[in-house]
Design brief:
Among the domains are: about 60 residues, Orthogonal Bundle (DNA polymerase, domain 1); about 60 residues, Orthogonal Bundle (DNA polymerase, domain 1). The chain is mostly helical. The strands form 2 sheets. It has a two-stranded parallel sheet with strand order 1-2. The longest helix is centred in the first third of the chain and has 24 residues. The chain is elongated. The chain has 9 helices and 4 strands.
Length: about 200
C-alpha cells in the first residue's frame, strides 16, 4: 500500500516539475524547446523566415532588364547570372578580392573559366560600379617574350594571372611555340579582348 509519506513525496516532485517548466518557458521567451531563430541585418531583430526568403530570392530568375553588380555582389547572388555556377562565382569573388573590382565586362575576362560565350550571356544582366586597380607596366619595361617567359612573367600580364599563365606554359609545351599572338586564343579562357591588351606588352616569337 502507498503510505501518506509516499503520496506527499509524489506531490512535492510534481510541484517541483511544474515550477521547473514555468521557469524554462519564461526564460525561453515562449519559444518551443530546440527552436531556432535567425538574426537578420545589424539591428538584432529576429526573423524566422530569413533563410527561406533569401533562398527564394536567389532562386528567382532574372527579370528583363534586371542587373547584378559584379563588382559588389556575393557568390550566391552571382549564381543568378546565366552560365555562372557556384564554382565560377567563387572564382569571380576571389579574383575581385585579390585584384580589385573589374569595372567593365572586358576586365571580367581575366577570371579563369570566363570566355567570350560566357561574357555574351552575362552582358545583358551585368553592371559594374567599381573602379579597377590599374597595374600598368612602365612604358620603358622590356616586352615579355611569349615563347620563353616563365610563370611569374606571364602572370604579371593584364588579364592572365597565375592560372592562365600555367595554362599558357602547358599549351606551349605540348602544342609548340606560338607563331603569332593570335594563336594564344587556343588557350582556354583567353579571348580577343585579352589578346588586344597584350599586344603592346608581348613579343612573338
Amino acid at each position: 500500500m502507498v503510505s501518506k509519506d509516499d503520496k506527499k513525496a509524489a506531490f512535492v516532485l510534481l510541484g517541483l516539475a511544474a515550477v521547473g517548466l514555468i521557469v524554462r518557458l519564461t526564460l525561453a521567451g515562449g519559444t518551443s524547446p530546440g527552436g531556432v531563430l535567425y538574426r537578420t541585418g545589424d539591428s538584432g531583430a529576429v526573423g524566422r523566415d530569413s533563410l527561406t526568403a533569401q533562398a527564394a530570392r536567389l532562386a528567382r530568375p532574372l527579370s528583363p532588364g534586371e542587373r547584378i553588380d559584379i563588382d559588389r555582389a556575393g557568390a550566391a547572388e552571382l549564381t543568378r547570372l546565366p552560365r555562372i555556377g557556384p564554382g565560377l562565382a567563387a572564382r569571380i569573388v576571389a579574383d575581385r578580392e585579390a585584384r580589385g573590382p573589374f569595372g567593365s565586362l572586358e576586365e571580367l575576362d581575366r577570371v579563369s573559366g570566363i570566355g567570350r560565350s560566357v561574357l555574351t550571356s552575362v552582358a545583358p544582366h551585368a553592371r559594374f560600379t567599381g573602379h579597377p586597380r590599374r597595374q600598368m607596366r612602365p612604358s620603358t619595361a622590356p616586352k615579355i617574350r611569349l615563347n620563353s617567359a616563365n610563370l611569374e612573367q606571364l602572370a604579371s600580364l593584364p588579364g592572365i594571372g597565375t592560372v592562365r599563365a600555367q595554362a599558357i606554359i602547358e599549351d606551349r609545351t605540348h602544342r609548340g611555340m606560338y607563331k603569332s599572338l593570335d594563336e594564344l586564343a587556343r588557350v582556354r579562357g583567353i579571348g580577343a579582348a585579352t589578346i588586344a591588351r597584350l599586344k603592346p606588352l608581348v613579343l612573338v616569337p
